[in-house]
Amino acid sequence: MIQRNQFALLLSGGGARAAYQVGVLKAITELLPRNHPIPFPVICGTSAGAINATAMACFASCYHLGVRKLEWVWKNFHTEQVYQSHLLPVFGHLLGNQLQNWRSDQVPRHPSSLLNNQPLRELLHQTLDFSRIDRNILRRQLRAICVTASSYAHKESFSFFQGASDLEPWHRAQRRGVKATLYTEHLMASAAIPLVFPTIRLHEDYFGDGSIHQLSPLSAPIHLGAERILVVGVEQPQSAPNIKSGHPSSAMIAGHLLDTIFADTLHSDLERLYRINHTLSLLSHKERQQTQLKRVECLVINPTVNLNAIASDYYQSLPMGIRALMKLLGIKPDKESSLLSYLLFEGAFCQQLINIGYRDGVNRRDEIRQFLEL
């Protein structure tokens, strides 16, 4: 029988698309009493999903309150709360990146990036009380919170986790789990989309978005004891390929790369998990014990609609500086682009994604209830 502390929530990365996850979490509130603690004591997240995961860990004692707080932030978002978006700061940042290339190597440099996300750091400082995590762990309302980032030096996926005292670090091929007391810089590192946002220095190493080297997204929750994992992703349905549009633009290629980083490794990991589960089902109890493998069940929820098309409808809501930058990158309001849906941190767009996530969660309510044994 699965114990309550063996249930886990895994939130994947996806920039502004992560607002969808809030809608799914909101749908689950309707399955729980108002003062109920979080139904998945193990919480793992990557990139923007890491921020959502940590926010939920801070409010593990009251799931309803955590979701309401998270929804309020997302639906009142403005782009300038995540990265500098006015005309002069945007192009001043790009110019500064170019000018520092002429400096001597002995002169300290700031990390190069397309955008400056210092406003996000300030927002996290204001909205998250990391001290609540330890209190929730001591009260056994939370078993572990895990945030994944990618090391540029080691070329490995680092899962920084804060949890119960019996949880041990791990080290496998190209991935490791490290005990840590989480704070803002862990989230900044996990959400540092390559080339878009600057790298972050942690523990004498430089880190970027957790999805880059994350070959096994399910590894962290499994190492933390999970046997049943609810996965909320942000991958939209595949559309029919358009082979008549000519060569893809640089913006389309950038969007394709982000789609690959945020989704493809999860697909392969789920496929591997299903094969292991099937193999275990063919073995006797004694044979299963000898393999040292365990059956892990997953329920995956992804958007049922095209998020790129929705993002195109909100193109004009972007600040002027970002619209000018988007045009330089070849992103236009009449053309869909995955890149736009990752960077469009505007309340109206985020609210739309929350509504879609809520609807998808409600449509799968019975499935979720049975999976979480609520």
TrEMBL record:
A motif (GXSXG) lies at residues 45-49. Keywords: Hydrolase, Lipid degradation, Lipid metabolism. The active site is at residues 47, 209. Residues 9-222 form the PNPLA domain. Gene3D superfamilies: Cytosolic phospholipase A2 catalytic domain. The keyword Ribonucleoprotein does not apply. The keyword Hydrolase applies. One of its GO terms (biological process) is lipid catabolic process. One of its GO terms (molecular function) is hydrolase activity. This is PNPLA domain-containing protein. It comes from Saliniradius amylolyticus.
